[in-house]
Amino acid sequence: MKAYSLIISLPLALVVTANCPAQPASQDNANLPGNIQIQSARQVARDAVASAGCRFVELLAKRDFAGAVTQFDTAMKTASPESKLREIWQVLQTQAGPFQKQLGVRTGNSAGYDVALVSCQFERTTLNVKVVFDTKRQIAGFFILPSQGYVSQIPSCAMTNAFHEKDFTVGKNEWRLPGTLTVPNAAGGSCPAVVLVHGSGPEDRDETDGANKPFCDLAWGLATKGIAVLRYEKRTEEYNAKFRVAGFQYTVQEETIDDALSAVAQLRSTEGIDSKRIFVLGHSLGGMLAPRIGQADPQIAGLIILAGPTRSFEDIEVEQTQYLISQNGKPSAEDEAYLSEVQATVAKMRKLTAADTSSPAIMFGAPASYWLDLHQHDTLAIAKGLKQPMLILQGERDYQVTLVDFNGWKAALGSQRKATFKLYPQLNHLFIAGEGKSTPAEYDQPGHVAEPVVTDIAEWIQSH
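Request: output the structure for the sequence above.
Response:
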């Protein structure tokens, strides 16, 4: 479950640095050679993109959401109307604190789109608002990024000379997903393998969250210990535009489960992989769905569940919102209004029936068909009926999926020998160590998945 609401994701190549508000390019070079004049024209265009990006953030800061929506292209107006934009900005300020000021802007170009990356100071952290423009200078998408990059150090549990990585495509036809297979160098024949299954929302293959890449940590750490790992772009990340089309109906089957099953099936025929020792590791939403994946393919050797919810999304959403608001001290009127909006949306979700399957309504970023599907599947009941062994891990400082969920697993499976449970007092939702109450700002601090987690997973896999 992501710390911030992601609207669209595009690769970014930054090429220019400027200050907000962007200034027009100098005309002093008008009589210089042609290539210099061309560069000046490009600079003018970049400054226009920078100015438009800063203007969009300014509208958000002023809470002029109606004005901000007028900057959107048709698809974005459908995917993120004024009410949704207000919700996103409220969530952001609940997590990061009130907006304070713009610090600067950088511009770039990606896949034919112009991009402005506006650095913003909030009360508790610095974040970047990435604004993506089409050729008409309309906003085709935006999302929130941490201001810090991923920590450059290698995880303590990994040795880069112990493994190698190669490209691996998951799936076929219209849903082909680029991925990475991390393979131990000293496998000595066939080795066990793990397929990593993402949390909620659009996710890249590293499950990048803030300044951290937990799936990369797991892949490198486990491969160092002799276990191959496959990670890949999530379908809603790679094909984000398709999922944002108004009226597009889907469930977790299309979003997550089908691709995990394809990944397992493909690994079975991959050279150097022990086809009888392929495991599935699901984090957050992926952990909730792991039993359904195991049920669909009984030949999967085992399931590893990291911070897997056992309660409904509705319960977790309300609890998480209340927790985040509580971090601000006494809730403001705006906080209370936002909580009321969340509770109202949750109430609508609880009333969904089969008649709403084709409803165009979007709730918490997904259609009614998505939530109805989750309502129809009892994760714990499915898990109880499986024969595969299960390793269930939980960070005690996790505020997104909590001890209530972990205890749900224990209550359902604690008497069964197939289930093993591990609780880590200092770890958060990403299984990174910290102190005190966990907050979204913690994800902006570079870190790595704790070494004991990697060791426990590796030892459990090797024992099966």
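The CA atoms of residues 197 and 286 lie 5 Å apart.
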